[in-house]
Amino acid sequence: MTTQEIAERLVFLCRSGRVEEAKEELFAEDIVSIEPYEGLLPRETRGMSNIRKKAALFISHVQEFYGSTISDPVVAGDYFSLAWYSDLQMKGEPRKINIELCLYKTKNSKIISEQFFY
Q: Cα dihedral angle (91, 83, 52, 30), rounded to 10 degrees?
């Protein structure tokens, strides 16, 4: 798959509520995930098994999920980005719109890194 095809597939699956399926299909086994800072989620996560644990940790802290909006991807070479708006309420916090910029790098038809800015 080209970077454009990977980007479009990721957006399609995530817009369909199939985020975990998207990861299983499109992420490389040795993917690296980078958050902007250490907090609830670790600053850096390596490997699919740890990505699954990170997702479970995040989901365990969501009290209510109201929906999300994902922009169309912007592709440049082996990279693509998208904006992701999530309407949710974390446990013990007020409802909010979480806005993040997501940057992905591809290689050999897989996503090898993801980095989030929020």
A: -150
Domain extent at residue 89? 3-117
86-102 per-position pLDDT tens digit: 999 999 999 999 999 99
DSSP codes joined into one string, 7-21: HHHHHHHHHTT-HHH
Give me the amino acid identity at 114: E
Give the pLDDT of residue 111.
Answer: 98
Q: Counting beta carbons within 10 angstroms of the beta carbon of residue 111, is it exposed (0 to 12), middle (13 to 18) or buried (19 or more)?
A: buried
| Residue 28 belongs to domain with CATH number | 3.10.450.50
Q: Count how many domains the chain has.
A: 1
